[in-house]
C-alpha cells in the first residue's frame, strides 16, 4: 500500500497521474484478457502480445477520454471554484464510480469472451430487457459463482485507483491572480485541453475517428479483440447499429451474383403437389459439432468418443451435415434457423432498429398452408424474449415453463429439465391436428451445465463442464424419439436437428474462426430415403428453404440460405463477428472487413488457420469476395428498405 501523500499545487499534474493510472490498469486488463483466453489466439506470441499492447493504447486512450468526458468538462471550466476541496472530493467520487464501471466491463469479458467470441457491445443492455429481467437475475449470480475471480480483480483495480487518487492530492495555491487574467488563462487552457481530448477520443488526426474495425487493420484481424477494450466497443456500439447500403454493384448486377428471393418449386417443371407432412425442428442448446463422435473420427487417433451417442447413431439413418451456425448467440441462431435470415449486423437483428421489419418464417409460411404451429421451450416464459419473437414470427402457440405447470421438474435456474419437457412436448404434439409445425429449443446444456441429481455419475465427463450436460440432453433426446416413434404421426413427420450455436471449444480446431461455428444439421425422415453424411457447406439459414423444397412448396420467399436438396445452389456460410465478415465456400474461408479481404485459409488442410493464402490464391479470394459483397449489399439494402418479404 502507498502510505505517503503527494501534494501538488498543479491541478493538471495531479489529475494526469490519476488518468495515467487508469491507462496502466487498462493495459493490465488486456494482459489478463489474453491470459484467460490464450487458446483462442494461437498466433499471438510474446512479440505479438507486445504489438497488441502498443496498438491497444490508442483505443484505451479513446475509451478513457470518452468515459471520463464529464470529469474533463468539470475540470477545465475557467472558474476558480473548481479548486475548492469539496469540489475536488466530489470529482474524485464521480471519477472512481465512472472508471470502476469501465473496469467491470473489461473484467467481465475476461470470462465471457470465450462464449461470445467478441468484445461485448451495447447490445448487452438489450439482455437486461429480455425476459422481464429474469434472464439477468438468473445469469449474474451464476456468473459471480463460477467466475468469482473476475469480481475480485475488479474490486482490487477499483481499490488501487481509489488509493492512488487519495494519495496524489491537489493542494490549492493562494497566489493572487487578477480575476480577468485568471479567466483568460483558464479559458485558453480549456481550449487546449479540450482540443487534445477531442483528438484523443477520435484516436488521432485522421479523417475518420477510430472504430472497432480499425483494430482489424492495425493487427491481424483474428487478434483484434486483444487490441480492443470492452469499454471502447460498448461506447462505440452505443452510437448505433444502423446499416448503410454499400452499393458494391448495381441492382441488376447484385441480383445476378446473389439473390435471396427464391421461387418454389426450384425446378419449374416440377408439378408435384404440396406434401402436407408434419415438421419438427429441434434446436439443441450449445451442441457444437465438437461434441459429436461421428464428426470427429480422426481425433486422438480415432479414440475420440464424443458425447452424443444417440445422435451419433441417428446420423447413420438421416441426411447429415457437419454444418455451420450463423451466429454465436441464441438470439442470433434461433432466428436464423426459423426465418432464413442471418445476423450480419452489430448487436442482433431482433432487438435492433429493424426488428419491426416484415419477415418470413417457417411458421408464417406453413400457417398459410393450413398448419398449426407451436414453439416449445422449457425456460421461464419471456426468457430471451422468445415469446415476443415467436409471436411476431407467426407461431400459433407458445409452450414454456408456465404451460408445463409442474415446478417439481424445475432445474432451479433456467427452466424444466430437458428429459421432462421433451416428454411433455411429445405428448402435447400428439394432441395437435395434423399437419403441424413445431420448433423445440432445449435448455439443460446451458450454463451452469447442471444435470438432475438422480443422474449424477451416469454420464461421462469431458474436458469441458458442458459435456456432461450434453450427454444428459442427448439422453433426453433419445427418450423423446422413443416416445414419438410410437405416435401415429411419427412416420409422416420430417425432423430437423441442429444447434442454436456452438459452446466453448476444447479441441484446437474448434477454437478457430471456422471451427467456432460448426454445428450439426440433420434431416431425419422415419423410414424415408434421407440418408448420407456429406461434407458440403451447409448453414442454419439453409434449413428454411430446405424444408420448403422437401414439402414441394409453391411460392416466393426471401431466404439467405439455399435448399440442401438443390445440387445447383450456392453452398456458402456467412457470419459477422468483431465487425468482420467471414464467408466459407468449398474448402476455403475468407475474412473481409467490409472494404478489404485480409485472409484466405484452406480450413480443411489447415484447420488452425495458420497459413494465409490471400496472396497465393488471388482468384479464389476475388471470387469469394464478390459473392460476399453481394450478400452484404442484399442484406443491408433489404434491412434498410424493409424488403425481407416478397411483395405481392
Report the helical percentage: 40-55%
Shape, please?
globular
Provide the domain count.
2
In order across it, which strands form the biggest sheet?
Answer: 7-6-8-4-9-10-5-11
Class computed from helices, strands and strand pairing: alpha/beta
Question: What is the CATH top level name of the largest domain?
Answer: Alpha Beta
Tally of individual helices: 21
Strand content: 5-15%
Low-confidence stretches: none
Q: End-to-end span in angstroms?
A: 72 Å
CATH topology term of the largest domain: Alkaline Phosphatase, subunit A
Q: Return the CATH architecture of the largest domain.
A: 3-Layer(aba) Sandwich
* The CATH fourth-level homologous superfamily of the largest domain: Alkaline Phosphatase, subunit A
Q: Report the radius of gyration as a whole number of Å.
A: 27 Å
Mean pLDDT comes to: 90
Biggest β-sheet description: 8 strands, mixed
Report the count of strand segments: 16
Task: Explain what this protein looks like in three dimensions.
The structure is a single chain. With 648 residues, this protein is of the alpha/beta class. 42% of the residues lie in helices and 13% in strands. The protein has helices spanning 11-36, 46-67, 69-75, 85-116, 124-129, 134-146, 148-167, 179-202, 212-218, 224-227, 230-238, 251-257, 309-315, 330-339, 362-367, 386-392, 401-404, 418-429, 466-484, 543-550, 618-640; strands at residues 6-8, 168-170, 261-264, 278-284, 319-324, 372-377, 397-399, 436-441, 493-499, 518-524, 532-534, 555-558, 572-577, 580-585, 588-592, 597-602. It is globular. It starts with 5 loop residues before the first strand and ends in an 8-residue tail after the last helix.
Amino acid at each position: 500500500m502507498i502510505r505517503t501523500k503527494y501534494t501538488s499545487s498543479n491541478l493538471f499534474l495531479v489529475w494526469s497521474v490519476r488518468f495515467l493510472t487508469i491507462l496502466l490498469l487498462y493495459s493490465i486488463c488486456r494482459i489478463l484478457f489474453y491470459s484467460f483466453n490464450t487458446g483462442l489466439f494461437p498466433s499471438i506470441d510474446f512479440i505479438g502480445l507486445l504489438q497488441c499492447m502498443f496498438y491497444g493504447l490508442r483505443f484505451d486512450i479513446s475509451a478513457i477520454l470518452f468515459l471520463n468526458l464529464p470529469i474533463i468538462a468539470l475540470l477545465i471550466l475557467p472558474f476558480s471554484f473548481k479548486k475548492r476541496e469539496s469540489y475536488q472530493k466530489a470529482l474524485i467520487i464521480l471519477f472512481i464510480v465512472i472508471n470502476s464501471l469501465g473496469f467491470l466491463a473489461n473484467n467481465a469479458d475476461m470470462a465471457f469472451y470465450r462464449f461470445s467470441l467478441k468484445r461485448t457491445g451495447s447490445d448487452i443492455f438489450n439482455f437486461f430487457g429480455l425476459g422481464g429481467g429474469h434472464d439477468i437475475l438468473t445469469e449474474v449470480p451464476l456468473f459471480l459463482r463460477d467466475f468469482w475471480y473476475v469480481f475480485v480483480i475488479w474490486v482490487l483495480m477499483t481499490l488501487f485507483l481509489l488509493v492512488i487518487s487519495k494519495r496524489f492530492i491537489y493542494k490549492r495555491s493562494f497566489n493572487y491572480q487578477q480575476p480577468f487574467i485568471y479567466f483568460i488563462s483558464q479559458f485558453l487552457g480549456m481550449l487546449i485541453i479540450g482540443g487534445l481530448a477531442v483528438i484523443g477520443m477520435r484516436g488521432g488526426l485522421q479523417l475518420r475517428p477510430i472504430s472497432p474495425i480499425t483494430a482489424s487493420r492495425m493487427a491481424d484481424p483474428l487478434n483484434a479483440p486483444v487490441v480492443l477494450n470492452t469499454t471502447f466497443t460498448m461506447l462505440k456500439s452505443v452510437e448505433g447499429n444502423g446499416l448503410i447500403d454499400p452499393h458494391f454493384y448495381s441492382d441488376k448486377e447484385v441480383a445476378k451474383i446473389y439473390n435471396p428471393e427464391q421461387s418454389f418449386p426450384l425446378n419449374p417443371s416440377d408439378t408435384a403437389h404440396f406434401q402436407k407432412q408434419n415438421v419438427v425442428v429441434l434446436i439443441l442448446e450449445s451442441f457444437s459439432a465438437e461434441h459429436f463422435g461421428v464428426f470427429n473420427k480422426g481425433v486422438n487417433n480415432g479414440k475420440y468418443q464424443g458425447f452424443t451417442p444417440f445422435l451419433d447413431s441417428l446420423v447413420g439413418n438421416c441426411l447429415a451435415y457437419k454444418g455451420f451456425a450463423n451466429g454465436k448467440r441464441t438470439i442470433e441462431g434461433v432466428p436464423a434457423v426459423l426465418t432464413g435470415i442471418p445476423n450480419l449486423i452489430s448487436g442482433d437483428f431482433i432487438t435492433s432498429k429493424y426488428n419491426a421489419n416484415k419477415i418470413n418464417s417457417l411458421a408464417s409460411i406453413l400457417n398459410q398452408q393450413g398448419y398449426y404451429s407451436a414453439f416449445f421451450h422449457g425456460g421461464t416464459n419471456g426468457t430471451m424474449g422468445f415469446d415476443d419473437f415467436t409471436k411476431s414470427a407467426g407461431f400459433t402457440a407458445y409452450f414454456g415453463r408456465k404451460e408445463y405447470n409442474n415446478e417439481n421438474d424445475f432445474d432451479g435456474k433456467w427452466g424444466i429439465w430437458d428429459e421432462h419437457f421433451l416428454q411433455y412436448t411429445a405428448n402435447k404434439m400428439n394432441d395437435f391436428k395434423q399437419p403441424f409445425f413445431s420448433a423445440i429449443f432445449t435448455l439443460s446444456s446451458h450454463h451452469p451445465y447442471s444435470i438432475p441429481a438422480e443422474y449424477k455419475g451416469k454420464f461421462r465427463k469431458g474436458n469441458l463442464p458442458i459435456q456432461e450436460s450434453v450427454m444428459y440432453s442427448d439422453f433426453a433426446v433419445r427418450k423423446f424419439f422413443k416416445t414419438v416413434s410410437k405416435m401415429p404421426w411419427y412416420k409422416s413427420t420430417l425432423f430437423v436437428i441442429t444447434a442454436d450455436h456452438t459452446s466453448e471449444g476444447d479441441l484446437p480446431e474448434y477454437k478457430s474462426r471456422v471451427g467456432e461455428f460448426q454445428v450439426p444439421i440433420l434431416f431425419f425422415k422415419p423410414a424415408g430415403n434421407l440418408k448420407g453424411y456429406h461434407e458440403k457447406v451447409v448453414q442454419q439459414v439453409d434449413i428454411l428453404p430446405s424444408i420448403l423444397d422437401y414439402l414441394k412448396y409453391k411460392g416466393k420467399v426471401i431466404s439467405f440460405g439455399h435448399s440442401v436438396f438443390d445440387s445447383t445452389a450456392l453452398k456458402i456460410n456467412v457470419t459477422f463477428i468483431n465487425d468482420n465478415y467471414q464467408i466459407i465456400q468449398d474448402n476455403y474461408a475468407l475474412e473481409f472487413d467490409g472494404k478489404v479481404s485480409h485472409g484466405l485459409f484452406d480450413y480443411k488442410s489447415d484447420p488452425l488457420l495458420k497459413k494465409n493464402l490471400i496472396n497465393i490464391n488471388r482468384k479464389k479470394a476475388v471470387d469469394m469476395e464478390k459473392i460476399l459483397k453481394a450478400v452484404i449489399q442484399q442484406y443491408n439494402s433489404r434491412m434498410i428498405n424493409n424488403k425481407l418479404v416478397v411483395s405481392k
